[in-house]
Amino acid sequence: MSIAVPEVEAGAEGGEQHLVLHGVDWEQYVTINDALPDRSGLRMIYIDGSLTFSTLSRRHDWFEDRFDKIVMVVALQCGIEYEVAGSATFRSEGQKVGVEGDRTYYFGPHAEIMRGPIDIDLSTQPPPDLAIEVELTHLADDAIATYARIGVPEVWRFNVRRKTLAFLLLGEDGVYHPAARSRSLPPLGPEDVLGQLRIAEETPSMTRWFAQLNDWVRVAILTRIAEG
């Protein structure tokens, strides 16, 4: 297969590599995406004819994992049904986009629909309810634009260097807007999650941090829910 690609952008920083191919049509993207089914540590984003390949560092994965633990503990202790979609590929031929997020999740009724090890097909299944993007060496603009096109209602955008976190909710105008509370996990605000990330960085033991995370949710979050 030959691909006419007039422009190529490449870069490497902080243990992560970034390659962008421009002028890639939908069929070419699907062929490349399908040809690399098992590619741990490699993510693809396709939008407006640009195909981005990114490799991830351990630092990036470390934050992904902490986000995952926070979501899991809050959902479990608050009795919110959820299903992990991880870094699954979400493709929409109609929108001509494809994305593999850092972490993605289904909640409530959508979690029931997506229960178990089933493949993703946006033509018959809902998009994830929550996507998390960790920005370390490059911005998540293309990923977030792609989420908007496929209808992901909520995105958490975390900038590692600035230590900023935004909860973004998709509006009727098709644009994400900052929110004070999560739609998927209503008791949580951005400062709650940032606080737990800070504690995780300061705690030398993963076991100790995870134990205090459970205590924090039980004492602070469940109390907040009880108080309305």
Helix/strand layout:
Blueprint: E1 7-13, E2 16-22, H1 26-35, E3 42-47, E4 50-55, H2 58-77, E5 82-84, E6 89-92, E7 97-100, E8 103-107, H3 108-113, E9 130-135, H4 141-150, E10 154-159, E11 164-170, E12 176-179, H5 190-202, H6 206-226
Parallel strand pairs: 9-10
Antiparallel strand pairs: 1-2, 2-4, 3-4, 3-7, 5-8, 6-7, 8-9, 10-11, 11-12
Helix pairs in contact: 2-5, 2-6
Written account of the structure:
By secondary structure, the chain is α+β, with helices and mostly antiparallel strands. Helices cover 35% and strands 29% of the residues. It contains six helices and twelve strands. The strands form two sheets. It has a six-stranded antiparallel β-sheet with strand order 1-2-4-3-7-6, with helices on both faces. It has a six-stranded mixed β-sheet with strand order 5-8-9-10-11-12, with helices on both faces. Helix 2 packs across helix 5 and helix 2 runs parallel beside helix 6. The protein is globular and about 50 Å long. The N and C termini lie far apart (59 Å). The mean pLDDT is 91.
